[in-house]
Structures are given as C-alpha cells and as structure tokens.
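Just wondering, can you check both lines?
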Amino acid sequence: YEEAEKNLKEILLKNQVELQYGTNKAVKMSIESDLSLLIHELRDIARYYQVNPHSIDEQPQTIILQHLEDINKITPTKTFFETDKEFKIIYSITEDKSLMTGFDLSNQPYVQEIRRTLKPSFSSNAVDSDASFQITVVYPIIDKNNELQGIVGIVLDPSQFFSRHGNISDINTEYLVIMDNDARFIAAPKNSLIDVVGKKFYDDDVQQFLHHDPNTINLFEDMLNGSATKYSIANTELGETISTGVPVKVDEKVEYY
C-alpha cells in the first residue's frame, strides 16, 4: 500500500510539473511577444526622429500619439519622453515631475546601457514620485552616421503589464512571480508575511521567507546559467510549493525570469 501511494504521488507530481512548466513556457512566449511589440512601436518613433531630428511640432506629436495609442493597447503607460543627445528631456507626456521637459537623464542606468550597446534597454531600478515600482523601456535615436542622438522611452506599471499574462494577486492559487535580470522582484502577489516587489532574490528577508531553501536557490541559479532544471519543491513560510521557471528574452537578451 505504501509503495502504491508513493508511486501515485510521483505520478501526480510529474503531471503537475509538466502542466505548470508548459504553462510557464506559454506565458513566456506571450510576455516576449508583448515586449517585442513595445520595442517595435518605440523603434518606429525613433526612426521618425532619425529622419526629422527633434522637430517637435504638431505632426510628430500626432505620430507619437498614434504610436502611444497602440502601446496603450498592450499596456497602459504612465509616461512618454524624448531626449536630446545630452539626454535632457525635450518632450514628454507625463504627470511625473521628475520626467518633465528639461530633466537630465544622463545618469540613469538605461542611458548608460544604451551608450554601451546602442540597443533598447529595460530598467526596473526607478521608483517614481508616489513610491510605486515601475519599468522604463527606452530605444536609441541613432543618426545615419551611427551616432547616438538621444532616446525615446515609456514608463509603465509592471503589475498592469504582467497581470495580462497571469495571476500576480492571489497567493492562494497558482500565481506568477517576475524577476528582472538583476534578480529583483518586479511583480508578485502580496501576502501577510512579506511584500517581495522591489526586493532582490538574495536579500536576507526574502531568503528567510524561503527558509534559505537550497532547491529554490538551485532553480534560480540554473535559470541564470541557462540550465534545463524544470522545478523545485520548497517549504516556505506559506507551506510547500512547487516552483517552475523560465527566462524571458527580447532580441536574444534575457530581461526577466
């Protein structure tokens, strides 16, 4: 009887893991598709300014609004901005006083990355004026000489974006947790013990919540290393959980887990 019960548990576990891992892969593809669409819209705006460098008049504003309308069909945006080659904002649509016209973005991490790579950048390191977490997506404006002339970008609420792809609010059912490539949680259900959003995987309070579980740590590190580990079983403060994880890529670069 004990052997039969053990075999049944193993079968149920295998079926649950396969189902959960398959769901993860479907969610990954959906997120990658939406992120690619956001980049596509920003690229079209940047290309307009490549041809018409920083000409803020009624026509480009109309073009911006058309693309922002398409972006808002994917996810609501809190801010749109454009900078000059010194990375000072010369045009913005926002209620955030820190992103108004004239504000200098040159020290922002996404600007430093774009200077190095001349490629789009995702940043989740910023906290806006009402202390909520946010994601900034930026695209370079590059002239015909392949020189960086500024950036265009949007700011969005990660909860609004990722809630389109899974449950990030109810801890009592199968739920989605998103981390950026700096191991920072940017979307996750809240619970009475800890709010992990904005914290990093290796932070002491997060690890205490996870009971420093080696299986969970191994799963995360395997994802970082591109390993094929499918799942972990861990005993957290909320009880036993089955976790599966996959990397989310944009243009072959891992942005989220």
